[in-house]
Design goal:
heterodimer; A: about 280 residues; mainly alpha; 15 helices; flat; B: about 450 residues; D-Maltodextrin-Binding Protein, domain 2; 6-stranded mixed sheet; 12 strands; globular
Chain lengths: ~280, ~450
């Protein structure tokens, strides 16, 4: 191994380290502020721990919102959404990848178009629909708009198209029906794409605020983001940054832990499914 | 539709779909339930450090005990902006909306215009002693709840006003025994207390919403930017221009605070950390500041203007939230009766006293200040009374037709003047006034 090579590798490592630290900084300061006493603001030359490390901010955050309940609600919301999405995107993706029917390209374009419309624009119309269905303030109302996913359909359609048609033909000859073909040939060969889709779906719905906030009124079904909103009190009293950061960490903790545990799988699945 | 391999989807797929559809129907049915009581949906924004939900649940329980047959359903609705958007989305989407909601006192015209709310005046007229009920509120707090004809639309609930907080220990050290009473004294004291690592005075006008604090100066200079008529705005008067030039000079020539002003959220924190000797902030923060300070906290009227005949130059806007009653004409007399009872209950001296003492908002009627727990709290901490007494110098908070748009224009103009981007204040304000008049012309 040449001397030059070693230097180059060290340099690359240092660069990676710098980038990692850069991206971890916000998280680091969130944790730091959440542990500082409320009365000691971050100022020039005084950015670390303050006079003591305190859990007071966490205690106050726990008084203001029932986090256990919100956790349960978020898990049901995110899990219920993902579960149905997996079914709908699988069959839609199969249809677009392998079936021929009238208006296929037009429909695909329509779905693509939906990716470009910001969801806020549809707020009032979606509310109207939910209201007509009599679902206002229910868990189902939270999930329904997300049960179809344009992103999921497009991602899986691409993945399915790359799976050799010969595999499906072989399965058909062996007597497999449509469901068996989809399950054994397509789903099994697209696990990395599913993982990537699940990650995007879970993290985006975990962080979703506006829709759950507008469509629910009962504390019993509201997710974490609505709880976090209770800590944002800038209107009349100025910011309680310590509490807010404590609440933020409470909300993002499961995602961060999940990511650290499954880091390798996530990165691999992203690399394989072609999203970078 | 035909499949590549010309095969029909088999029965199992159809069965699966059928089961899914069944499950959907079952879940829908579960969502519909019956209610026999009159239920009042009450939306409230969170704008306080306390556990607002717990407090409202306590009020609801007490009310329900006194009024069997009525159930109060308190719903947390986010910030004031969230509350407004939630309610608008719900009503535009054909939803039921709230029965009673706490919204900004300046939201009046936008909701009245759409026909979503009904005037409280109807209910007041039906009372035996309606005028006495209205007269109990501090007049400054009623200004934003009334239209130009003098009809009462909304009832003051969680009201605030900006006041001057000062570090009495620092003032005493510098030889000042009493707080400033006009803006010349304000500048003098602020300059005496400014050091390398301490600001003499922080006025939170940075960060996109300078209008509220600015109004204090405009009023103290002698001319509020808004009057009784919701189609008139007075933004380019000599007083309005002088006021903004004074605020700008605090951060430039006078050098007592940061150029462009301080940020809203950081201001009380800096005061508590003794990085600022005096601050302008809301009374909504009184409880937090009194309990968080290691020094003697003084509170005084905002000395924003030049000395008048009596040597004082006070002025402040009011702010905060009122109780609004929602009805599209479909509610029964029994429901409306229950709604009004709840509004009366929340604005009663008993509840206002409790709410004021727990949150720091100004209890909105005089009787509340004679009622426990606020009576003894005000005795123990005279600072609470200062906010109330400042109301005699207080003016109306900015509100007009197309409030949100015009407020946006004013905020943008003020910000560009304060940051120095627009050097000529008069020219910038003339341009803004012309734009505002163009918008309001449609309403005249």
């Amino acid at each position: 191994m040449s001397h030059f090579y070693v230097i180059r590798r060290r340099g690359a490592d240092a660069l990676k380290m710098a980038i990692a630290i850069f991206f971890l900084l916000p998280l680091f300061f969130t944790a730091l502020v959440s542990l500082r006493p409320e009365t000691e603001p971050v100022t020039n030359g005084n950015i670390f721990f303050g006079s003591e490390i305190t859990l007071e901010n966490y205690r106050r955050a726990f008084i203001i919102a029932p986090w256990g309940l919100h956790y349960l609600n978020s898990i049901i919301f995110v899990g219920g959404t993902l579960l149905v999405q997996l079914f709908t995107v699988t069959f839609a993706a199969y249809a677009f990848a392998r079936m021929r029917f009238f208006g296929r390209n037009f429909l695909l374009m329509a779905i693509l178009l939906q990716l470009m419309i910001p969801s806020g624009v549809l707020l009032v119309q979606n509310f109207r629909t939910i209201n007509i269905l009599g679902l206002f303030d229910t868990r189902i109302a939270l999930m329904i708009p997300y049960w179809g996913s344009a992103f999921g359909v497009l991602l899986l359609r691409q993945t399915f198209r790359e799976i050799p048609i010969e595999l499906e033909e072989a399965a058909r000859i062996d007597g497999a029906n449509l469901l068996q073909v989809v399950r054994h040939v397509y789903v099994m060969n697209a696990i990395p794409a599913y993982l990537a889709f699940a990650l995007v779906s879970v993290s985006s719905h975990w962080n979703e605020f506006l829709w759950p906030f507008i469509i629910t009124r009962s504390e019993e079904i509201r997710p974490l983001t609505v709880g976090l909103n209770k800590l944002i009190k800038t209107t009349d009293q100025g910011a309680f940054y310590g509490q807010l950061m404590a609440g933020t960490l409470i909300v993002i903790a499961p995602l961060v832990i999940l990511f650290i545990v499954f880091q390798r799988q996530f990165v691999e699945s992203f690399a394989r499914s072609g999203i970078r | 539709m035909s499949i590549d391999k010309e095969r029909e989807p088999d029965m199992r797929l159809r069965n699966t779909l059928f089961v899914l559809a069944l499950a959907l129907c079952a879940m829908t049915a579960g969502a519909i339930s019956a209610q026999s009581d009159i239920v009042i949906d009450f939306y409230f924004p969170s704008a306080t450090a306390n556990d607002a939900e717990g407090i409202f649940q306590r009020y609801a329980d007490q009310f329900q005990e006194e009024n069997p047959g009525i159930t109060i359903n308190p719903v947390f609705s986010g910030s004031y902006t969230d509350t407004r958007n939630t309610i608008l989305t719900e009503l535009q989407g054909g939803g039921a909306g709230p029965d009673v909601a706490v919204m900004l006192s300046i939201d009046l015209y936008s909701f009245a215009e759409e026909g979503y709310i009904v005037p409280a005046q109807t209910f007041i007229d039906a009372m035996d002693d309606g005028q006495a009920y209205v007269d109990d509120f501090f007049p400054a707090l009623m200004a934003n709840g009334m239209d130009e004809m003098g009809n009462v639309w909304s009832i003051p609930f969680q009201r605030s006003t900006p006041i001057l907080y000062y570090n009495a220990d620092l003032l005493a050290e510098a030889g000042y025994d009493s707080p400033p009473t006009n803006n010349a004294e304000l500048v003098e004291i602020a300059q005496a207390l400014t050091t390398d690592d301490r600001d003499g005075l922080l006025v939170p006008v940075a960060g996109g919403f300078p209008i509220w604090m600015y109004q204090s100066f405009a009023i103290a200079y002698g001319r509020n930017i808004v009057g009784d008529d919701p189609t008139e705005v007075y933004f380019n008067t000599p007083e309005a221009v002088e006021a903004v030039e004074f605020v700008r000079s605090l951060g430039t020539d006078l050098g007592v605070g940061p150029a462009g002003g301080a940020a809203w959220g950081d201001t009380p924190v800096a005061f508590l950390a003794e990085q600022a000797a005096m601050i302008y902030h809301t009374t909504g923060n009184l409880t937090r500041i009194l309990s968080g300070a290691d020094f003697e906290v003084g509170v005084w009227y905002l000395p924003s203007g030049p000395a008048g005949e009596d040597g004082a130059g006070y002025g402040a806007p009011t702010g905060g939230g009122n109780l609004y009653i929602f009805d599209d004409g479909s509610k029964s007399d029994a429901e409306l009766d229950a709604i009004w009872k709840w509004v009366m209950f929340l604005s009663s001296p008993e509840i206002q006293s409790d709410w004021g003492a727990t949150t720091g908002y100004i209890a909105s009627n005089a009787a509340a200040w004679e009622t426990e727990p606020l009576a003894s709290l005000a005795l123990e901490h005279p600072q609470y009374g200062v906010a109330r007494d400042q109301l005699q110098h207080a003016g109306k908070e900015f509100s007009s037709y197309a409030t949100i748009t015009i407020q946006g224009i004013i905020n943008g103009t003020l910000e560009s003047i304060l940051t120095g981007e627009a050097e000529d204040a008069q020219a910038a304000m003339d341009a803004a006034q012309a734009q505002i008049d163009g918008i309001l012309a449609d309403y005249r």
